[in-house]
Specification:
This protein is an alpha+beta fold. It folds into six domains: 1-126 and 220-265, RNA polymerase sigma factor, region 2, helix turn helix motif (Rna Polymerase Sigma Factor, Chain: A), CATH 1.10.1740.10; 130-216, Arc Repressor Mutant, subunit A (Orthogonal Bundle), CATH 1.10.10; 306-390, Immunoglobulin-like (Sandwich), CATH 2.60.40; 394-468, Carboxypeptidase-like, regulatory domain (Immunoglobulin-like), CATH 2.60.40.1120; 478-564, Carboxypeptidase-like, regulatory domain (Immunoglobulin-like, Sandwich), CATH 2.60.40; 761-882, Sandwich (Immunoglobulin-like), CATH 2.60.40. Helix content is 22%, strand content 33%. The protein is built from 15 helices and 50 strands. A six-stranded mixed β-sheet has the order 28-27-37-36-39-40. Strands 43, 44, 45, 47, 48 and 50 form a six-stranded antiparallel β-sheet that branches. α3 (39-60) crosses α6. The longest helix is centred in the N-terminal third of the chain and has 23 residues, at 91-113. The relative contact order is 0.09. Mean pLDDT is 75; it is low at 1-24, 115-137, 200-206, 239-244, 262-305 and 793-800. Residues 856-883 are annotated as: Disordered. Residues 142-193 form the RNA polymerase sigma factor 70 region 4 type domain. Belongs to the sigma-70 factor family. ECF subfamily. Residues 48-110 form the RNA polymerase sigma-70 region domain.
Length: 883
């Protein structure tokens, strides 16, 4: 399909973006047309925002072709997500964030592709551009990296004014604030960005020049790139063969970013427990203090600590018949400890789990000839019996071979993670042909572990049920040996630690296996490294010395000899104290580098990165290997949390004293349809990134009890967001936030009481697919979305202002508690299963409709009757090729 000329784009910009007087189209309508494959909308959006996106990609990537690939992948992501953007007027800042993430993925792809090749020089005018005053790709990328770390309100102003080139007046209109407020945000952002760039080593004059020139460098998108991108989007939107129409690198990068967005919105209940919800990424290092077995926050022994709760229930099959002999277990991780309680169902399928503590609990059921099931609930005295309905069993199978494709017999295999927990108990060994088979597997993905003596094991191997047998190769480990000495004297260092890892694109991007640290006594060492990933590396740490990292060990065919001469350097020191002053002894301390820490129930779920763990002594002090500021020191304890940010560089690291601040607590009740709602998943997280440690994400999840009540004991003080979660696809353990939701202020050492739902007015209705589609099959109802019209309701983070809502299999839906105002309701019918012929992600809607809903001032509240929208039939979404 030929690309249209720039004249068409210019006319559409005039019609769509510059007031819309001819066509009367607002931003939401433009995005709707973009999502439906309107080429005029493609051209208009690309011409208006393309220069900003291309400049962002060029700053992040040295190679012009890589920058163009990132540009196209960014708009592929927009094609996938355009229909779900809640604030279309903020499209520019949203695209800037997407471009940064896409460029990061393209950069990683390029690094893997060119490990043994010199990186191609950038075309003249891109590398070392005088306009930018920057002479390295790292510094060019630093601009966008630091912009993305700004507070949201300041970041939007910077993108709209400095990167998109909009006037202060237009920016104020889009942000719904005064021109003076825009100027204030820009001044604050400039000071922050300049300071951060200077700390990263940019000369003050160059930092100021680079910020001023960033927006000026937004040249028009070259016509071939503009036309090629429009043609690519048209092919993707019209369900043409995607693999042939889109370069693999572009498709891979866009899919990876979309998967990340979906993971941020559709958080599994179990993933909440593991801290895999919405994550805040930061480049600043962290130091985290953890107590391994902390006491209660108040030091008391309450009844809730006693193991006096019994959970009873029944297990039946999908026809309602009792399942006898099924194993029922309570707990979240059975890899290194026994379940909290176990039982076996009797002839009637009944069970009783005794000796549990009151509070959140995960129950897992496994029965011969049935797929397992899992339930997260709240154990409480006198709770109602729970019931499990086990579905038909599925099979997982595979074959393990060596590097010569010969079978490995007797290799152990075990289930590891499923739905975010480690509660499936299954293990086996391969037969003489290297094959294994699990006949009582679940219907969804399981992560399994594979290993064999003398081979590098595999963890978290994705095992899909009922899939064709997959051959899994295993390789021998790679041996490294060497010596560790003092660089000045040449004398051997006799005590140090070896940390295996894998090299990333840059020196600070290495991925360290911190759970496999080896303590060594003696100047010589031998270490076996896994060959399951490319570019293994080794880090050496010795007290009083700067850490050292080996070269990339990219030839695993033979032994490698690596010697480490270490130079002396002071370590980071500090102490941790309890809220009432005494030192906190035996506290584990974590030095965290690039990446993030997820905090769940007051404990960190540690991710890979350049961190190292130590322990405080009786006086509460600790010592950790040095790192370059800025870094944050974060202490987590049952009694509270504290953090300190170290900004200054140069000289010996300053000692840090952390005095813990008591946690807050949240108690609440969920009401749906005017009544308490039992058994519902509730998620809590920080409402924004303000006043929290850099690089730390905090969140948790629980389930309402029979009275609809819930509680969170270890809550980070500040504004928190509470929301209900529902399963998006039955049996797959993927959840999404839906209405109702609210934001509450939590104070240190206090309990905040909330009611979720029961306010505003409910809205109900039913979706009826178009007649032809209803008869054809291969579709399902997607989540609906409700969003307030501009100026029609309170801020989006406040109660009763919208969000996603579930649509049942029969098309019925209920939107809980909308505050008075005017809303847009979006309803969609999508392919099921995902259809690769309908766009690169197989989810281009088959039918969709947007309906305006007005909630009057009265009646509202728990007794208000629902506003019935009746039966709604979405419009069929046809591909352009079929029109």
């Amino acid at each position: 399909m030929a690309a249209h000329g720039t004249g068409n784009a210019a006319r559409e910009i005039g019609r769509i973006f510059d007031g819309g007087s001819l066509a009367g189209l607002d931003d939401a309508e433009v995005l709707r047309r973009f999502a439906r494959g309107d080429e005029a909308a493609f051209e208009a959006v690309l011409a208006r925002l393309g220069p900003m996106v291309l400049a962002t990609c060029r700053r992040a990537l040295r190679d012009e072709q890589d920058a163009e690939d990132a540009f196209q992948a960014t708009f592929l992501v927009l094609l996938r997500r355009a229909g779900s953007l809640r604030r279309p007027e903020r499209l520019g800042p949203w695209l800037h964030g997407v471009a940064c993430r896409v460029a990061s993925r393209i950069r990683a792809q390029a690094a893997r592709r060119r490990q043994d090749e010199p990186r191609a020089a950038r075309p003249e005018g891109l590398a070392g551009s005088p306009a930018l005053g920057i002479e390295s790709a790292e510094l060019r990328s630093a601009i966008d990296e630091e912009i993305s770390r700004l507070p949201e309100r300041d970041r939007r102003a910077v993108v709209l004014c400095l990167l998109e080139g909009r006037s202060h007046e237009e920016t104020a209109r889009r942000l719904r604030c005064t021109v003076g407020s825009v100027r204030g945000r820009l001044d604050k952002a400039r000071r922050t960005l300049k300071g951060r760039l200077i700390r990263r080593g940019v000369a003050p004059a160059a930092a100021a020049t680079s910020l001023s020139a960033a927006g000026e460098a937004n040249a028009a998108v070259p016509a071939p790139l503009l036309g090629g991108t429009v043609a690519m989007l048209a092919k993707a939107a019209t369900a043409e063969a995607v693999s042939a129409a889109i370069a693999p690198g572009i498709l891979e990068a866009s899919r990876g970013v979309v998967r990340g967005m979906i993971a941020a919105r559709l958080t599994a209940a179990a993933a909440i427990v593991l801290g895999l919800g919405v994550l805040a990424m930061a480049a600043a290092p962290l130091v985290v203090a953890i107590e391994p077995t902390p006491p209660r926050q108040d030091g008391s022994s309450k009844a809730s600590d006693r193991r006096n709760v019994t959970v009873t229930g029944r297990v039946v099959d999908d026809e309602g018949n009792p399942v006898a002999g099924a194993a029922v277990a309570a707990g979240t991780d059975f890899r290194e400890k026994e379940p909290d309680a176990e039982a076996v169902t009797d002839a009637e399928g009944r069970f009783a789990l005794k000796g549990l503590k009151a509070g959140p609990v995960v129950l897992t059921v496994q029965g011969k000839g049935h797929a397992p099931d899992l339930l997260a609930t709240t154990a409480a005295p006198g709770m109602k019996p729970v019931e499990f309905e086990l579905k038909a069993a599925h099979a997982i199978r595979g074959r393990i071979v060596d590097a010569d494709d010969k079978p490995i017999a007797g290799a152990p295999i075990a289930a590891d993670e499923w739905r975010g927990h480690h509660t499936l108990r299954w293990h086996a060994r391969t037969d003489a042909e290297g094959r294994y088979r699990w006949d009582d597997a679940p219907a969804d993905m399981v992560l399994i572990d594979l290993g064999s003596l003398g081979y590098s094991g595999k963890r978290y191997w994705q095992a899909a049920p009922d899939a064709p047998e997959k051959t899994i190769p295993m390789r021998r480990p790679f041996r490294v040996r060497g010596r560790v000495t003092d660089a000045e004297t040449g004398r051997p260092i006799l005590a140090y630690s070896l940390v295996p890892g894998y090299a990333g694109p840059g020196p600070g991007d290495h991925d360290w296996a911190n759970d496999r640290v080896r303590e060594v006594r003696g100047s010589s060492f031998e270490l076996d490294l896994s060959t399951e990933r490319p570019n293994p590396v080794v880090r050496v740490e010795a007290r009083g010395y700067a850490p050292a990292v080996s070269r990339r060990l990219d030839d695993p065919s033979s032994e490698a000899v690596v010697d480490f001469p270490l130079r002396k350097r002071a370590w980071i020191g500090g102490e941790v104290r309890l809220p009432d002053g005494p030192p906190a002894a035996d506290v584990r301390v974590l030095a965290f580098g690039r990446g993030f820490v997820s905090i769940v129930d007051g404990r960190p779920m540690m991710e890979s990165g350049p961190y190292r763990i130590a322990a405080t002594g009786p006086d509460g002090t600790f010592g950790l290997p040095p790192m370059e500021p800025p870094y944050t020191v974060l202490a987590l304890h049952a009694r509270g949390l504290a953090w300190h940010r170290q900004e200054a560089a140069g000289g010996a690291p300053s000692a840090t004293t952390l005095k813990l601040q008591p946690w807050g607590r949240v108690e609440g009740r969920l009401r749906l349809g005017g009544r308490p709602a039992p058994g519902q998943l509730i998620r809590i997280s920080r409402a924004d990134a303000q006043d929290r440690p850099a690089g730390a994400w905090w969140g948790d999840g629980t389930q309402t009890d029979p009275d609809g009540r819930f509680a969170f004991d270890r809550v980070v003080p500040g504004d928190v967001r509470l929301s209900r979660q529902v399963e998006v696809e039955a049996g797959k353990g993927i959840y999404s936030e839906v209405t109702p939701a609210l934001v509450a202020a939590v104070r240190s050492g206090e309990t905040t009481e909330v009611t979720l739902g029961g306010t505003g007015r409910p809205v109900v209705g039913k979706v009826q697919p178009p007649p032809g589609l209803a008869r054809s099959g291969g579709w399902r109802h997607a989540l609906g979305f409700v969003s307030p019209r501009p100026g029609a309701a309170a801020a989006p983070s406040r109660p009763g202002t919208g969000g996603a809502f579930p649509v049942e299999a029969d098309g019925s839906f209920s939107i809980e508690g909308l505050a008075p105002g005017t809303y847009d309701v979006l309803l969609q019918v999508t392919p099921e299963p995902p259809d690769a012929s309908r766009g690169p992600f197989g989810q281009v809607p088959l039918a969709m409709i947007r309906r305006e809903v007005v909630i009057p001032d009265h009646p509202t509240g728990p007794d208000a009757p629902p506003l019935d929208l009746g039966t709604i039939t979405p419009e069929r979404v046809e591909s352009q090729g079929a029109r």
